[in-house]
Amino acid sequence: MDSNQIIYNEVNYNFFLVLLSYIIAVFGSYTSLVFARESVNVTPKERFAWIAWASIIMGSVGVWSMHFVGMMAFDMGMPVNYDIGLTIISMILVILGCAIGFGVVGLGSRNLLVMFLAAVFMGGGIAAMHYMGMAAMNMTANVEWNFTFVVLSLLVALFASVAALWMAFNLHTNLQMALASLVAGLAVCGVHYVGMFAYNFTTMSHVHNENPLPSALSPTVVGSGLFVLSLVVLLIGVALTRARPFSTANNQALPEGANA
Predict the structure, then answer these.
(1) What digits encode the pLDDT tens for the residues 122-131?
(2) How many CB atoms lie within 10 A of CB 207?
């Protein structure tokens, strides 16, 4: 091993931000699951809009915002900035993945095989968002990957997506949806933090950086801002359940795999 190279094996986290990332994932998951659930009670022309909103909320709040706060919680001991273009692309990828997943199940068949295939796209979008978000990091360090944890994070993303799709279209009551959002939030966080175990970085001790990279983002400001956003989204979901109480009878009237 090069004596000039320092390997950072210890991961330091701000556990307040870790908890905040979970809360954000729960809030986003609840509202997106409510939108997906309610999509079965509207006309076919209206259904696309409900599925689209479920995808946008799950992707941008439930997954991407959680990921970004989780990144703020990760203390690398050096200034870190993010490539804006890659960061935006990472959000687009997860929204598209969620849109395909919710769309295939919500607009078409709801059998387990179709649900699993839809989860491949949703889970793929979640994983792509995570690793694209990691690639967006600008810092004075080299990165190495533990591919065992990379593969494990992909599997977590897949089965988290299966669970989210099943819960969105099979649970009925508000209490069930609230409990489901706790599970979905845990699953989304699982993808991120398992993926972080795959991440190792090194920095050269003898390199003098004449222009150190400034840290333009305050973890507290970013975390608080995204938390407020997720809270607003949650309030929309709660208001939606009050304005449009779910009709179990309507849902049961729809044959499985049929378009209303």
Answers:
(1) 999 999 999 9
(2) 9
Phi, psi of 150, rounded to the nearest 5 degrees: -60, -50
Within a domain: residue 257?
Answer: no
> Angle at Cα 42 formed by Cα 168 and Cα 176, nearest 5°?
30
A 10 A CB-CB count for 202 gives 16
Q: Which of 160, 46, 35, 149 is nearest to 102 (CA)?
A: 35
Residues 230 and 23 sit within 8 Å (Cβ to Cβ)? yes
Kindly report the number of other CB atoms within 10 A of residue 162's CB atom: 20
255 DSSP 8-state letter: P
Task: Answer yes or no: is 146 within a domain.
Answer: yes
Dist CA 87 CA 142 (whole Å):
19
Sequential DSSP letters for 44-57: HHHHHHHHHHHHHH
Q: Do the beta carbons of residue 203 and residue 140 sit within 8 Å? A: yes
Q: Whole-angstrom Cα distance, residue 93 to residue 107?
A: 20
Supply the range of the domain harboring residue 91.
Answer: 13-203+219-252
Residues 73-111: tens digit of each pLDDT: 887 767 778 888 898 999 999 999 999 999 998 887 778
Residue 8 lies in a domain: no
What span, in angstroms and rounded, lies between the C-alpha atoms of 94 and 56? 9
For residue 208, being part of any structural domain is answered with: no
Q: How far apart (Å, rounded) are the C-alpha atoms in residues 208 and 129?
A: 33
Question: What is the total count of domains within the chain?
Answer: 1
